[in-house]
Write a structure and sequence with these properties.
This protein has 3 helices and no strands. The chain is an all-alpha fold.
Length: about 80
């Protein structure tokens, strides 16, 4: 589902995204916080970083908005 949502997001935004496979959330969080990648698709590992202001949440996956991030649109 995440791959389809990212494809839809990039198409709607008019941008090209290059998928990079990661082995797990620790590896992807290190890469995004270290500035090696600029965008990620994940489950909940991002939440503390969004709440602290280190990351910006562009969208969530699902039919309804996430209660923790009610101001963030869904894809």
């Amino acid at each position: 589902m995440a791959t389809l949502a990212i494809g839809e997001f990039s198409g709607n935004a008019g941008i090209q995204l290059n998928p990079i496979p990661f082995k797990g959330s620790t590896e992807i969080m290190s890469s995004i916080l270290g500035g090696h990648i600029r965008m990620m698709s994940g489950t909940t590992e991002f939440a503390p970083h969004v709440q602290s202001g280190k990351q910006r949440l562009l969208a969530t996956l699902g039919r309804e908005r996430n209660k923790a991030f009610a101001d963030v649109p869904t894809v």
